[in-house]
Each structure stands twice: as C-alpha cells, then as structure tokens.
Automatic annotation (TrEMBL):
<dbReference type="GO" id="GO:0043565">
    <property type="term" value="F:sequence-specific DNA binding"/>
</dbReference>
<keyword id="KW-0479">Metal-binding</keyword>
<keyword id="KW-0862">Zinc</keyword>
<dbReference type="GO" id="GO:0008270">
    <property type="term" value="F:zinc ion binding"/>
</dbReference>
<protein>
    <recommendedName>
        <fullName>THAP-type domain-containing protein</fullName>
    </recommendedName>
</protein>
<keyword id="KW-0175">Coiled coil</keyword>
<dbReference type="Pfam" id="PF05485">
    <property type="entry name" value="THAP"/>
</dbReference>
<keyword id="KW-0863">Zinc-finger</keyword>
<dbReference type="InterPro" id="IPR026516">
    <property type="entry name" value="THAP1/10"/>
</dbReference>
<feature type="coiled-coil region">
    <location>
        <begin position="130"/>
        <end position="164"/>
    </location>
</feature>
<feature type="domain" description="THAP-type">
    <location>
        <begin position="1"/>
        <end position="76"/>
    </location>
</feature>
<dbReference type="InterPro" id="IPR038441">
    <property type="entry name" value="THAP_Znf_sf"/>
</dbReference>
<dbReference type="InterPro" id="IPR006612">
    <property type="entry name" value="THAP_Znf"/>
</dbReference>
<keyword id="KW-0238">DNA-binding</keyword>
Amino acid sequence: MPSCCVPLCGNKSRLFRLPTGVSNRARREMWENLIGRDDLNDNSRICELHFSEQQFEAKRADGRKLLRPNAVPDVLNKNVGACVLMDGCTPLTTARENEIFELESCSNNENVNVGCFPEVDPLLDQTNIVEESQTLIENLRNALRKALRERNKYKKALENCVNNLQGTLNEDQIQFIQTGTARDQLWSEDTMTKALKLYLACGAKGYEEIRRQKLPYPSIRTIQQRLQGITLKHK
C-alpha cells in the first residue's frame, strides 16, 4: 500500500497524487522542491497532513475533500518529522505554473530552515487570464475581419470578370473558366455551334491551338459526337 512520500511521515491514509503531465511540469517541480526529494515518480503520493485548509476546495455537497487545482503542500518541515504549519508563513493559495518562488526563512522560525511563500492575491491570476483571453479574442476578430475583407475583394473582382465576359461568352463557357475543367461539362447548342464554326474555319490544328490558349471551347471529339442533329446559327 502506498504511503506519504514526505520524509519521516509515512502516513498511509488520505493520499493525493502529485501533479503529472507536461502542463503541470512547473507545479510538479515546485512540489518536489518543497518535499525535498528528486526521486519521485507518478506513483508517489502525499497525504492531507501537508496541506493547510486553504489548499482544499470549499465544503462540497458530496462531502469529498479535494485539493484546489492550484494547491501546493504548504505544511512541511524538512528538518523535523512533525507535520505542522510554520508560524508566520502565509500559505500560497494560488500561483501561476511558470512562477516558482524562492524559499525564504520565516522570521518567526529562524532556527528552522523552512519554505515560506509571499502572500498572493487570489484574484490576480484570474484577472491576468481574463485580460489575456480578451486580447486573444480581439486579435482573432481582427484577423477574421481582414479575411472577410480579402474574400469580399476577390468576390467583387470575380463578379466584375463574369459581367465583362457575359457579353462575349455563354454561361457554360463562363462556368468552364470558373471550374478550370471540362469534366462533366454540358456544352450548350450555341457554344457547340460557335466551336464548329471555329473548327471549320481554322482546321484541326488551328482549333487545338485555340484550346491550348485555355479558351472555353469543347474538344474536337466532343464536337464530332454532337455533329449529328446540330443546326448552325447564321448571324
């Protein structure tokens, strides 16, 4: 059965797991420094005697006694086996994970080398988190506005191109330009008529050159498949 990892404690009841995971690395190092051991692993446990009441959640309806997410073991005396809260020390109730405070000697316990934390405003971290979140949200909003402006600009340019082409090309030809492929393209009778006129006027080589220039006309094979039944429009 596991027991408390604090030197000279060995308590086997009301044990808590040490912080684990990459996001808790800073808190894990803080706990290990306070406990005074560098050989702990993910199976190590610490008992409730090493936490002041400020480190626990408020009284729960289910009666469970759980540590706060930012709790630290603040009832430690590395030189003596007794588990007592040092007089004159203010327990740390909240701390940023990237801040590890230097250990200082308590003014009222000069004979004992113990760790004392400076008093921290419990609302300080929450205020910083809110401010950082608001800044991030505002940056995302600005990026979204910029993306929308760019989209509207390109959309307007495309609409202008389509309007300019509508007097010269048919709808199916404009669709070909937009999609960039003739696959599953249904060419209109008017477009097929214009393509056939070009084919008869330019010949096979001339017509293929027109298509190589990316002009929106069907292939010679498509023209041949549609030759039967097509009626030329004389203008």
